[in-house]
Design brief:
The complex is a heterodimer of chains A (534) and B (427). Chain A has 534 residues and is of the alpha/beta class. Chain A contains 14 helices and 24 strands. Chain A has an eight-stranded mixed sheet with strand order 15-14-21-20-19-16-17-18, with helices on both faces. A five-stranded mixed sheet of chain A has the order 2-1-5-3-4, sandwiched between helices. In chain A, strand 11 and strand 12 form a beta hairpin. The longest helix of chain A is centred in the N-terminal third of the chain and has 16 residues. Chain B is α/β, with parallel strands linked by helices and 427 residues long. Chain B has three domains: 211 residues, NADH-ubiquinone oxidoreductase 51kDa subunit (Rossmann fold); 84 residues, Ubiquitin-like (UB roll) (Roll); 85 residues, Up-down Bundle (de novo design (two linked rop proteins)). Classes of the chains: A alpha/beta (534), B alpha/beta (427).
């Protein structure tokens, strides 16, 4: 491991590390535009200039992104010459920049803005006419291009080529006529397009979906995971007044690296902003409050003990699944789940399995059941009814063969393009899917908990939105059932929290939800044998 | 004084293979292939002190010695025929008139660096030269002087002609390599250098046409003969171009170290119409302007460095008295603005910005503070980029500002009002 000196402080880094990353290890920020840890460094923005002081050689100003941290290297990031070089680069970059920060979505998280404050001059000397270029052109399904704001760092070009494997962006022109462009008549078509807005260090590539929605400093940001598939990409949920306005990937080298897919990013925007949401419960054809519904359903489960088939869902948190296991298993005839098949996944991040916590279902020892076999289970006359936590599954099962008695616990959207979904803006005339019990569920963003991805990484997801008043979250419902059944469950409720209990149930040392590292906990392959406590 | 590069320049059309062989061409190549080892060729070229004629004057033998001796895959020779420096037309003459001089040089050089393929990257506008070379290559192939089993040895050399598409920057060796590979013609960050990672990721030596044209003579007559010409640090002859306001513009083969006066006055017939010279460009646009009192400077790399500029390609441009340096510099600044590849921010913006300012002086709207600003634009971009392009656009600008400052001061706005800038309001 080479040891080098940066601004007088020693640091050792793995061989092959560049000076930017070595400095980062010391919390020294070297500003850069074209460099990106996940892309080939091209060294063209010239922002990351540092000074190299070699004994016996003249001082050298060079770019940190392409300078390898070698043994004994002596770097200064604050020397007069590199400070001047950076200021000069910024003045060049700002010469033709439109400075339309007041109407730019990037303002507040823009590297051009931030570095100008930190490394630039307050005065611009460029007084020639500025370049006038394309201001807003939709170049794909989501991304708007503003060529005037662009500083031509080419991160987007490299991202599309190197990462997304869809080389649809180019630098066209030459010199100061250079612009980022798509090939004529060939817009971006990729499941990773949304990342361009994050990869762009300035406001040149912005999201159509976020355009003029909010100043970024007005957003409430929570760390979560994407439930679009069982990759569970680390993300940030950014809300304003309880509405999810933007989803961004959060760097996690254990899970998703730096990026996320569009199925997740834009899927969550729809998913977490349900427009026509059924907020009240239904019991035997009559509307009831959620609390009443929860109570009556709990009573029915206890009264008909041993006669319910429970279909769990991979949308539930690990904590909810653990409680469901210990509460429902003693009451139900059988507790099972229908594993999701992979549909339309790619070889990058999107697995196509729309089942965020399927791994937890498996690790907690639930038996799985194929969708086409559920009907056989239900045909058993001993089964009184089906308690299902998954509305799309219930819908598919009903379509195969109407379920005799259905108790549905999930979020239900009116309209939603389904024949039985009713009209979006009208009250439902009957219970969703004809369920005897319908208890409105919550979104993953409305509760905190943990999820285990396909590789066994357990991550925490924070609560980013409030559920409508009166909603009974799934966990509260399960505890109501436990109370009805007289189950005390000391294994669960005597622990510091349910995450602790879940980890112990999975054969791991206990940790509270708060103690889960930001980048998750690798449960690893060989966990201790799972023993059913029921 | 001996001539070994331009013997055929006066003829109509190119020297064809049959006549070339009658004159003894390819005998040196044959002797090299039959009786020498690659290191011996490299050593001879090193001893001769041959330096690269593309403008950088890097010792050719040293460049070759960076090439791998033990091959783990192909090595390449890339011939830089993308002659684009304004005021330079020497390679064109070689290729149009004496293609076999270059091709024999290519054979020997391939032998020296153990390359079996030479990519000849020729400037797109050089249509005639391209066609002549294509014919000459076909002649060689028909005669068995290209391809396999050359001269009865088991060595092979192929030459691939590749036309550029009109970008000055593709004369920079790594931009040329990118362009050759079908990528954007942008210089690559170095290291790695081409000898390690060149064309298609293979070890590559990139050499200028005139450089390679020197090689047969060195191998034929020896380094001692060669070193007797030119200066001790820059031996040999150079194809000097003289253009602009002279009586006999053209390409003149003379020993390095010949004075600019001898070239302009004796060979090119002096300033056109017996007029006076305002300035001369010693070696292509990027070398800048020298005042007439520097006319006795010997034209070799070291002497011109002492004079504050560079020899570059040796393409002299004479600027007559009636042309203002501001106008002459505007031609260059516009050229460089047009030709920067634009990947590095300081160069892309600096070349454009300085051109915009020079244009204002041209319109008589310069401001006093612009002179310092131009200096700062050069300071902020020179040495700060992947290639040396900012040094190229700063060459004429810096010399114009230092040697001919008065001309800029005379083009300032009388009341010196602030330059108008268009409002930058956008929807």
């Amino acid at each position: 491991m080479p040891e080098l000196t940066i601004d007088g402080r020693k640091v050792d880094v793995p061989a092959g590390t560049n000076v930017i990353e070595a400095a980062r290890k010391l919390s020294i920020d070297v500003p850069y535009y074209c460099y990106h840890p996940a892309l080939t460094p091209v060294g063209s923005c010239r922002m990351c200039q540092v000074e190299i002081h070699d004994p016996g050689r003249p001082l050298r100003v060079t770019i940190a992104c392409r300078t390898e941290a070698t043994q004994g290297l002596n770097v200064s990031t604050t020397g007069k010459e590199c400070v001047a070089a950076r200021a000069a680069t910024l003045e060049f970059l700002l010469a033709n920049h439109p400075l339309d920060c007041p109407i730019c979505d990037k303002a507040g998280e823009c590297d051009l803005q931030d570095f100008s404050y930190r490394h630039g001059s307050g005065v611009g000397r460029f007084e020639e006419p500025k370049r006038q270029l394309v201001k807003h052109e939709l170049i794909g399904d989501h991304i708007l291009l503003d060529q005037e704001r662009c500083i031509l760092c080419t991160r987007c070009v490299r991202f599309m080529g190197e990462y997304a494997k869809s080389p649809s962006l180019v630098v066209a022109g030459r010199g100061d006529r250079n612009v980022i462009a798509t090939f004529p008549g060939e817009p971006i078509h990729s499941n990773y397009e949304g990342n361009l807005a994050d990869v762009c260090p300035v406001g040149a590539l912005t999201l159509k979906e976020f355009r003029f929605k909010s100043r970024v400093w007005d957003l409430d940001v929570e760390e979560s995971i994407c439930t679009g598939c069982d990759r569970n990409c680390s993300i940030l949920l950014e809300t304003k007044r309880n509405k999810l306005l933007r989803v961004r990937p959060r760097m996690n080298l254990k899970v998703n690296g730096h990026f996320m897919c569009d199925v997740g990013r834009f899927g969550l925007l729809d998913h977490c902003n349900p427009v026509h949401r059924e907020e009240l419960g239904w019991v035997k054809g009559a509307r009831r409050s959620a609390a009443e519904t929860a109570d009556l359903l709990a009573a029915a489960l206890v009264a008909e003990k041993g006669r319910w088939l429970v279909l769990l869902s991979a949308r539930l948190t690990t904590e909810e699944l653990l409680v469901a296991r210990d509460v429902l298993a003693p009451l139900a005839r059988e507790v099972t789940f229908v594993p999701a098949a992979a549909e339309g996944g790619d070889d990058l991040l999107f697995t196509g399995r729309r089942a965020a916590n399927q791994k937890a279902l498996e690790l907690l020892g639930f038996a799985s059941c194929r969708e086409e076999d559920v009907a056989n289970l239900v045909a058993d006359p001993a089964i009184a009814g089906v308690l299902c936590f998954d509305a799309p599954l219930a819908r598919r099962l009903s379509a195969r063969k109407p379920l005799r008695r259905l108790a549905l616990v999930d979020l239900f959207r009116r309209g939603a393009g389904e024949p039985d979904g009713g009209a979006p803006d009208q009250e439902l005339a009957a219970s969703p899917l004809g369920a005897e019990f319908f208890l409105p569920g919550t979104l993953f963003s409305e509760k905190e908990g943990s999820y285990v991805n396909l590789d066994g990484v357990l991550q925490r997801a924070a609560r980013a939105q409030r559920a409508p008043a009166g909603t009974v979250p799934e966990l509260q419902f399960l505890r109501a059932v436990a109370a009805r059944a007289g189950l005390l469950l000391p294994d669960l409720f005597s622990k510091p929290d349910l995450t602790w209990a879940a980890l112990e149930a999975l054969g791991h040392p206990g940790r509270t939800l708060r103690q889960i590292p930001d980048d998750g906990l690798e449960l690893g392959a060989p966990v201790a044998a799972v023993t059913r406590t029921a | 004084m001996e001539i070994y590069l331009s013997n055929e320049f006066a003829r109509e059309g190119p020297l064809l293979l049959a006549e070339a062989r009658a004159k003894g061409r390819y005998r040196t190549a044959q002797r090299v292939f039959e009786s020498l080892k690659p290191e011996q060729v490299v050593d001879e070229v090193k001893n001769a002190g041959l330096r690269g004629r593309g403008g950088a004057w890097f010792p050719t033998g040293i460049k070759w010695s960076f090439m791998p001796k033990e091959l783990k895959g192909p090595s390449y020779l890339v011939v830089n025929a993308d002659e684009g420096e304004p005021g330079t037309f020497k390679d064109r003459r070689i290729m149009e008139k004496d293609p076999h001089l270059l091709l024999e040089g290519i054979l020997i050089s391939c032998f020296a660096i153990r390359a079996e393929t030479a990519f000849l990257y020729i400037r797109g506008e050089y249509r005639t030269a391209h066609d002549v070379l294509a014919d000459a290559i076909a002649e060689l192939e028909a005669a068995g002087l290209l391809g396999g089993d050359l001269f009865g040895t088991n060595r092979r050399v192929n030459v691939v002609l590749h036309r550029g598409a009109g970008a000055y920057i593709c004369g920079e060796e790594t931009a040329l390599l990118n362009s050759l590979e079908g990528r954007r013609g942008e210089p690559r960050p170095k290291p790695p250098f081409p000898a390690v990672w060149g064309a298609f990721g293979r070890p590559t030596s990139v050499n200028n046409v005139e450089t390679l044209a020197n090689v047969p003579a060195i191998l034929e007559r020896g380094s001692v003969w060669y070193k007797a010409m030119g200066t001790p640090l820059a031996p040999g002859n150079l194809l000097f171009g003289v253009s602009g306001a002279v009586e006999r513009p053209g390409c003149y083969e003379l020993p390095l170290g010949t004075t600019a006066r001898e070239l302009i006055d004796k060979h090119a017939g002096g300033v056109r119409g017996g007029g006076r010279m305002r300035a001369f460009v010693p070696g292509g646009a990027s070398t800048g302007f020298l005042p007439p009192d520097k006319i006795d400077v010997p034209m070799d790399p070291e002497s011109l460095k002492k004079a504050g500029t560079m020899l570059g390609t040796g393409g002299i441009v004479v600027i007559p008295e009636e042309v203002s340096i501001v106008d002459a510099e505007r031609i260059f600044s516009r050229f460089f603005r047009h030709e920067t590849c634009g990947q590095c921010s300081p160069c892309r913006e600096g070349a454009a910005w300085s051109d915009q300012i020079v244009a204002r002086f041209q319109r008589g709207e310069g401001r006093r503070e612009d002179l310092a600003l131009l200096e700062e634009i050069m300071r902020g971009s020179k040495g700060m980029t992947i290639c040396v392009f900012p040094d190229a656009f700063a060459g004429p600008l810096a010399t114009a500002l230092t040697q001919f400052r008065g001309e800029f001061e005379r083009r300032m706005a009388p009341a010196a009002p602030a330059a108008t800038s268009e409002p930058t309001t956008h929807a």
